[in-house]
Amino acid sequence: MTPVRTEGWPQWPPPATDEQRERLLRVLDGGRWGATAGHGEDSLVARFAEDFATGVGAAHGVCTVNGTVALFLALRALGVRPGDEVIVPAYTFVATATAVVLAGAAPVIADVTDTLHLDPSSLARLAGPRTRAVVPVHLAGAPADTEALRTAAEHHGLAVVEDAAQAHGARRHGRPAGTLGDAACFSFQLSKAMTAGEGGIVVTDDRRVYERLWALHNVGRRADDGWYEHPELGWNLRMTEFQAAVLGPQLPLLEGQIDHREARAATLARVLDDVEGLSPVPEPAGTTRHTRHLALLRYEAAAFGGHPKAVFLAAMNAEGVPLDTGYRSLTREPSLAPYAAAIRPCPVAEAAEDSVVWVRQPMLMADDAAMADIAQAALVVQHAFRRRPLRR
């Protein structure tokens, strides 16, 4: 039988631009490949850090090798030390928690709301004398409820580090992701809205935090000290000029790409009205710019003959629609168990593991007809499943 969709899906990242090629060749031929080889306007890394920070409304930016390292640097710059605890949401990529472990601290895993973002009420239950920070994740491109989180964090004396890996260009009540906490971390990994294959950045408005970030990522140096002077412990965690050459030209394209994904997500929500048991996960109230790194859908097995999510995903893939299974709850990640402060049940995140499916960013770069194909494939699968319901 012919699948519902026989066309492919858009490539991500998009084809390289002439400007990216020209910048890459300029770096290659110039021989100044490392971030420390250039100074001021000569450094593409320094220029990109400034441009990106300005774009999100922050005063300072420090580029890093990846987003996990960005989180590690932010935590260390804000005073997290070995033996401390940091609250993270249960429904997130594992790096949100492993960055805490990298900083020597213990992740405290908190449940999420129906939007799958960190539940602000959990801070009152989980914050203790060793807790130093909280890391809200702007999941799928929608900012977390940072007002409620900051109020709770201030009450407990906690720093707020935004995990904005999926939220380039997002806004909450008109304020950009990157200005909603004490520091914010973005990723430029291959799947992200802006990408250099790998890379990351930390942005902050606090000059003292910026100076600590700069020293930590540059082997403990200070900007006004000598090359072999290292007044504090640090690491070489710098971005290369090649990565900045690829990233810089993407900044002017970002808003248009977000507009495109927003329009496709709206179409997808509309066509899914006809599909019982498959619906968009709500975004947090106050979201004024959702970047749609993902479209999150809730799958109700009862509407599909009782078949579990994995079977539904396989059937959709056979129809030419490769939906993604998404995260499992961090409470079910065995690698974290030895490091977490405690593993408490997180029923909302654990239920999401079994019921939430993803439409990834490249699919949202397609057209409205492709969104209709997603809904049509779901209807075809639903019809087949209802004819062959799961027997228990």
The biggest sheet amounts to: 7 strands, mixed
Task: State Rg.
Answer: 22 Å
What's the overall geometry? Answer: globular
Number of domain modules: 2
Q: Can you name the CATH architecture of the largest domain? A: 3-Layer(aba) Sandwich
- Termini distance? 28 Å
Structural class: alpha/beta
Helicity level: 25-40%
**Content of β-strand:** 5-15%
Low-confidence stretches are none
CATH class of the largest domain: Alpha Beta
Number of contiguous helices: 13
Fold-level CATH name of the largest domain: Aspartate Aminotransferase, domain 2
On the 0 to 100 scale, the average pLDDT is 95
Q: Could you spell the SSE succession in H and E letters?
A: HHEHEHEHEHEEEEEHHHEEEHHEHH
**What strand order characterises the main sheet?**
1-9-8-5-4-2-3
Q: How many strand elements?
A: 13
Oligomer: single chain
CATH superfamily of the largest domain: Type I PLP-dependent aspartate aminotransferase-like (Major domain)
List keywords for this structure.
alpha/beta, 14% strand, 13 helices, Aspartate Aminotransferase, domain 1, globular, aminotransferase, single chain, EC 2.6.1.-, three-stranded antiparallel sheet, seven-stranded mixed sheet, DegT/DnrJ/EryC1/StrS family aminotransferase
Short description:
With about 400 residues, the protein is an alpha/beta fold. It contains 13 helices and 13 strands. It folds into two domains: about 20-250, Type I PLP-dependent aspartate aminotransferase-like (Major domain) (Aspartate Aminotransferase, domain 2); about 255-385, Aspartate Aminotransferase, domain 1.
